[in-house]
Amino acid sequence: MSKLTVALVAHDHKKPELLVWVKQHIKILEQCNLVATGTTGGLINKETGLEVTRYKSGPLGGDQQIGALIAENKLDALFFFWDPLNAAPHDPDVKALLRLCSVWNVPVACTPATADLVVTSPWFLSSEYKPIKPTF
Ligand SMILES: O=C(CO)COP(=O)(O)O
Fold it and tell me: What function does the entry list (predicted)?
């Protein structure tokens, strides 16, 4: 069975929450190909030793690079702890990334609670479940 490709992204004020979450679910996440925006990916690797493919930092195009994976049907899930209390200079990119998850029916979790439920679902690592991809 091929590994799931999973993207991990967090805004600065949410990085501590994402790190806690990654450590809680490390046994599941180590079975996945992990990709991340630059700073998030560097922190995850440093704090957990997990291998992470790092794209550019979010404000420098990293969200768009992850969006490109979605458009190419190369991403299985996104865990995006975005910050609802601080404006981001690249807000259009953030919206575009979340929008593409809706366009292509990619599972996306934006809070630790949702992320817990998604990653512990019996369907998460199973080949029994494949999201239906829309045809346009
Ligand atoms: O800005 C981000 C997502 O929108 C995250 O980027 P970094 O992981 O480089 O901080």
Answer: Catalyzes the formation of methylglyoxal from dihydroxyacetone phosphate.
